[in-house]
Amino acid sequence: MKALLPLLVLFAVSSVAFSEDMTPPPSTAPKVVLHVLGVAQDAGYPQINCYEPRCLPIWARPELASGASMLALVIDGSRFHLFDAAPTLPRRLYQFWIETGLTLSDLEGVWLTHAHMGHYAGLLHFGKEAASTHAVSVHAMPRMAAFLAQNGPWSQLVSAQNIVVHQLTANTPVLIGAAKVTPWLVPHRDEFSETVGYLIEGPNRRALYLPDIDKWQKWDQDLVAILKTVDIALLDATFFSGDELPGRDINLIPHPTVLESMALLKSLPRSVRSRVVFTHMNHTNPLLDPSSKETQSVLALGFRVARIGNRFDL
Question: What is the value of pTM for the model shown?
Answer without folding.
Answer: 0.89
